[in-house]
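Suppose you are handed only these lines of text.
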Amino acid sequence: MENLKKLVRGKKIISVICNQWGDTGKGKFSDYFSCYWADVVARGTGGNNAGHTVILNGKEKVFHILPSGIGHDEKGVISLLGNGMVIDLKVLLEELAEMDAEGMTYKNLMISQDAQVIMPYHISQDLKKNQSQKKGGIGSTGRGIGPCYMDKIARRGIQIGDLYDEKILKEKLKKIQEYYPEEKFNVDVLVERLKPYADKIESYVKDTVAEMHRFREAKKKILLEGAQGLLLSIEHGSYPYVTSSDCSLNGTATGVGLNSKDIDLAIGIVKYPFMTRVGGGPLPTELGGNKSEKYCSEEGHEKEFELKKYEISYEIIEGEIKYDLQDKKIIELMNSKDEFKQGVGIRLAANEYGATTKRPRRTGWTDCVAAKYARNLNGVKMVLTKPDCLNGLEEFKLCFGYKVDGQKSVVKDFSKNKDFLYSVKPVYKTYKGYGDLRKVKEYKKLPTGFKKSIDDFEKFTGAEVIAVSTGPARDDLILR
Ligand code: IMP
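From them, the structure of the protein bound to inosinic acid can be written out as follows.
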């Protein structure tokens, strides 16, 4: 706790943003800061395409919309859904109902009047597009995110504030109808359906940008909680294999009405020494390459399938699949010379299956070229996550460059161009495995070889590693 206090001393606005393709374990850090530090926890981008674990009454819950600060409402922590978000009201109310069921409060929730509303026709369009793009498609989460942002950009989207003026709402929906001829929705029926949702959240709807400015003025401690990851950003990610919001540091600040220059500690999260991606699109370091991408995009390859296929014992307790992440067979897979199998082993060892869609996440070694790019966009300070999951790994690799066909020299700069990323071959440096990190509490006590890899990472990327996460619990964190 002393190190954490040192880290946050004098800070007023902290952001936690993923520097890769999402799923780097940001939730734990947002939770850590909201528990020990923040007065306000705000989300600025995306919607229920995200998924993070929140601890309520000691139980794990996966939330998709509410920020992780919501578990600390009782203490007065404000949870804010910002202007840049797209909100599915049904899902939001389900999450609030879970809070009710746990006897937990959300009296300090604020929902931006400017956020966009995800409508049933957005979800239907998203699913249809996924269907028609089965081969080589983006593989969206099917939550209506893209179509909802399309309406926002086309300046016809329904904002939360519109829900409280029936005349305006109906007029807007009638205009929108012409853009969704196949959906044939009835405006009156839809308005009736939305009404109970709108009523339920009305007291939380605010001009959150003005609120944020007041919080900043009053020197409240504000945590900006990122969603997805830099490499999925519509601006800076591997377009078109991206989500539809700008989930970079700047985009997240915009999404809550702040200037990113106001952020006095911007933390980029990097999964290390492996990384993941879910859905289609390039992942230069993918173990098993195209075979893995194809396999992970096909239906039926979820966790249970893989456990059965590799004969790893598991139980299902209250609908949850439980297995020993350190099972001998998993460690064997992780050390396999067959890269595809090694990728499966890492997936199983780190339990890398989508929190939102349950899809298997594609796995590969941490790409330092991409991390250098992230440093240039999201800031210098980084936290490394999940290395503890690879206990038992004999050796690991880090990517410090790309080989491009027909070029002699190794490329050391990232380009988000999809054809470039699909064509390059990573250049690796290999390190010895580092054993069990879970009991290590001090940076200087980390294994020497592991620390050396971090030194190389910092030297190459120009980043400053401020902490290493060594387990799922809030306090499993070694601050430097
Ligand atoms: P969408 O955001 O549902 O439109 O999906 C667009 C792409 O972003 C797909 O490849 C998704 O798999 C990916 N994606 C969206 N949200 C997340 C996330 O929270 N973690 C990881 N990938 C995501």
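What can we learn from it? The mean pLDDT is 94. DSSP finds 16 helices and 20 strands in the chain.
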